[in-house]
């Protein structure tokens, strides 16, 4: 129902269809944050700078290798900054850049949506719709 969930009503804009063309920067950006772990790492860093080990502990379920890959990808796209510890190059902490910080609101909105609708998504998965592979899109 409009207005009851706290979400704004989305109005269709035909110009937005151009937003996600294959070579569009918006599509490429969505692909970066749509990675399985990117939003989780961004959410963890939204609480402030963290060291690698602290992120592994706070996230749970992510391997050190996958966390390193995710941090490097987010760093390469300007969302995360790696600050080496003075005198110890292998020790560093990670923090959001101003660009990464600008995603804090949308990440919170996505988390809220997931919290509100998570049961419905799981119910749909359990209903095992014919012809639908539940693993599609999760690789």
From TrEMBL:
> Where does this protein have coiled-coil stretches?
none
Entry keyword DNA-binding: yes
- Alphabetic keyword roster: DNA-binding, Transcription, Transcription regulation
Task: Pinpoint the HTH hxlR-type domain residues.
Answer: 24-122
Q: Which Gene3D superfamilies match?
A: Winged helix-like DNA-binding domain superfamily/Winged helix DNA-binding domain
GO MF terms here are: DNA binding
Under InterPro entries, the record lists: HTH_HxlR (IPR002577), WH-like_DNA-bd_sf (IPR036388), WH_DNA-bd_sf (IPR036390)
**Any matching Pfam family:** HxlR
- Which protein is depicted? HxlR family transcriptional regulator
> Lineage of the source organism?
Bacteria, Bacillati, Actinomycetota, Actinomycetes, Kineosporiales
């Amino acid at each position: 129902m409009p207005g009851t969930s706290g979400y704004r009503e989305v109005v269709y804009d035909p110009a937005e269809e151009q937003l996600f063309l294959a070579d569009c920067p918006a599509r490429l950006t969505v692909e970066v944050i749509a990675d399985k772990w990117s939003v989780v790492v961004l959410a963890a860093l939204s609480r402030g700078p963290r060291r690698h080990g602290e992120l592994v502990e706070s996230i749970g379920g992510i391997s050190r290798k996958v966390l390193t890959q995710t941090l490097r990808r987010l760093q390469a796209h300007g969302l995360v900054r790696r600050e080496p510890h003075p005198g110890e190059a292998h020790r560093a902490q990670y923090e959001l850049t101003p660009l990464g910080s600008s995603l804090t609101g949308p990440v919170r909105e996505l988390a809220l949506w997931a919290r509100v609708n998570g049961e419905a998504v799981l119910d749909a998965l359990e209903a095992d719709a014919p012809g639908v592979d539940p693993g599609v899109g999760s690789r």
